[in-house]
């Protein structure tokens, strides 16, 4: 399949696809409601990272360092989401940022981004179903974990195989559980800090305890940036949902505008409460990083408030968070594969849909890949762990692709004489937003394994930066075979708003 970018051919295909995706058999259906997309955007912001590993940021960099890292990454993610919002409302397609990379940068980059992202989600799905089994074994310790993992995968497959509204409704309620838990946590935590109902008042003494608020200096804060960045992974899925939204021009901006306040409320305030109630020297803060639900910062705070069954309650909440992650992963990866097939970057069978608008072949391929990855963990932990580590940077790479696509799209849009009033949604503080996102993501990626870089430990570097190498190989390989070129700004197809509806 040769694809070169003397643009009209490849870009017109994408415009046509955007305009046709909501029609009948052979295409996805626009059945996701605004409340679904708002909750999916919110659910993408709240993962197990907040419930389990957030305490390690405070332990490593102190309360001030942890807060600084989450605020900085939160601001960056907000700008990134507004960039995605501008693109997704202008051209709402299921391929999302892979399609934008192809259209606004280089078809080879779209090919590389799409396949790398699909691979990441399928491997993440295997990790998540393994974690789900461990959480269920908390209550049923003598049952084999693989049974629970397979059960979770089957349930998620059935949800995604029904209708897109079934996926949206499931995600709505799973996200609601997470939101309710955090609100209760914040109310109880603030009451303990201020001495309301809980005596004596804890106050803010832990912010000045020993070396607090900043511990370990700049290197410690940099290492915490990585943890904070991973916590926000998945927010970009809202861009994928635009292709199946009833009204992307309304739903996507609403979801993205709310992201800033949700990041502030759920992440920054949660970290503040944890830092105020638990000293950074507490070994319990690191214990949750090993998957010990009893050491989750949320569990510790609830226990101090007198909730005897705190560990069991938080285990249930984290389980719903894992189910949400598997559910979202199956959706996002199947739609990414569907989008790749639509753009002729994947076998045509993956572009076929059922009468209900489900890309079933893409979904089956995704679930089978997750199952194969999970099976590798049964037969050999070393290869399984290598896969998990090797795909760890994919989310940051996807973010760079989004920021770069938006940066070039806006430049081309202005160069070709278009007015910003033609866009349904405007990103915030362009060009600062996409530039900040690109710079921070590059810093986070480069800082992932500084010791190996300094010592030139090639084996460790190969594992840590495998995602980067994979994207480069996919990009250069596709470019070599198909002789693609970077799309020139004056030739770029920046249409799409009218044909996308």
UniProtKB/TrEMBL annotation:
Transmembrane feature ranges? 37-58, 64-81, 118-140, 146-167, 179-202, 214-232, 259-281, 301-326, 360-379, 385-409, 429-446, 458-478
Q: Which UniProt keywords apply?
A: Amino-acid transport, Membrane, Transmembrane, Transmembrane helix, Transport
Does Cell membrane count among this protein's keywords? no
Q: Where is this region: Disordered?
A: 1-25
Query: What residue stretches are annotated with the Amino acid permease/ SLC12A domain?
Result: 36-487
Name the membrane topology term: Multi-pass membrane protein
Specify the domain of life of the species encoding this protein: Bacteria
Question: Where in or outside the cell is it found?
Answer: Membrane
- What segments bear the compositional bias annotation Low complexity? 1-13
Q: What is this protein called?
A: Amino acid permease
């Amino acid at each position: 399949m040769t694809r070169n970018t003397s643009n009209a051919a490849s870009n017109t295909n994408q415009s046509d696809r955007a305009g046709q995706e909501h029609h009948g058999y052979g295409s996805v259906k626009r059945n996701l409601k605004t409340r679904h997309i708002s909750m999916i955007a919110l659910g993408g912001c709240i993962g197990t990272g907040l419930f389990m590993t957030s305490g390690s940021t405070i332990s490593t960099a102190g309360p001030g360092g942890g807060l600084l890292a989450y605020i900085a990454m939160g601001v960056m993610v907000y700008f990134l989401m507004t960039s995605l919002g501008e693109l997704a409302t202008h051209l709402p397609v299921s391929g999302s940022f892979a399609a934008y990379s192809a259209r606004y940068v280089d078809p080879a980059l779209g090919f590389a981004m799409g396949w790398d992202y699909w691979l990441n989600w399928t491997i993440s799905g295997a990790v998540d179903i393994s974690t789900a089994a461990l959480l269920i074994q908390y209550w049923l310790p003598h049952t084999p974990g693989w049974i629970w993992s397979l059960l979770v995968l089957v349930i998620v497959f059935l949800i995604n195989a029904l209708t897109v509204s079934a996926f949206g409704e499931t995600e709505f309620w799973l996200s609601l559980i997470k939101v309710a838990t955090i609100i209760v946590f914040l109310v109880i935590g603030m009451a303990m800090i201020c001495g309301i109902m809980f005596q004596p008042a804890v106050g803010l003494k832990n912010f000045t305890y020993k070396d607090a608020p900043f511990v370990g200096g700049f290197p410690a804060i940099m290492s915490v940036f990585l943890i904070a960045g991973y916590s926000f992974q998945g927010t970009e899925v809202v861009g994928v949902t635009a292709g199946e939204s009833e009204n992307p021009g309304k739903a996507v901006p609403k979801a993205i505008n709310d992201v800033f306040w949700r990041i502030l409320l759920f992440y920054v305030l949660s970290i503040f409460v944890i830092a105020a109630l638990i000293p950074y020297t507490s070994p319990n803060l690191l214990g949750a990083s090993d998957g010990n639900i009893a050491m989750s910062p949320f569990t510790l705070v609830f226990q101090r408030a007198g909730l005897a069954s705190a560990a069991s309650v938080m285990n249930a909440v984290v389980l719903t968070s894992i189910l949400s992650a598997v559910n979202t992963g199956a959706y996002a990866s199947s739609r990414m594969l569907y989008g790749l097939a639509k753009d002729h970057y994947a076998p045509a069978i993956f572009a076929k849909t059922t009468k209900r608008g489900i890309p079933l072949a893409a979904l089956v391929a995704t679930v089978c890949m997750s199952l194969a990855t999970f099976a590798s963990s049964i037969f050999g932990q070393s290869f399984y762990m290598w896969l998990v580590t090797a795909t760890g940077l994919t989310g940051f790479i996807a973010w760079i692709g989004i920021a770069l696509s938006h940066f070039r799209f806006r430049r081309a849009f202005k160069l070709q004489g278009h007015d910003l009033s033609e866009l349904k949604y405007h990103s915030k503080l362009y060009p600062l937003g996409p530039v900040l996102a690109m710079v921070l993501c590059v810093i986070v990626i480069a800082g992932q394994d500084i010791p190996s870089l300094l010592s030139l430990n090639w084996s460790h570097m190969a594992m840590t930066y495998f995602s980067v190498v994979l994207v480069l190989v996919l990009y250069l390989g596709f470019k070599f075979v198909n002789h693609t070129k970077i799309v020139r700004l004056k030739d770029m197809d920046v249409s799409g708003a009218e044909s996308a509806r």
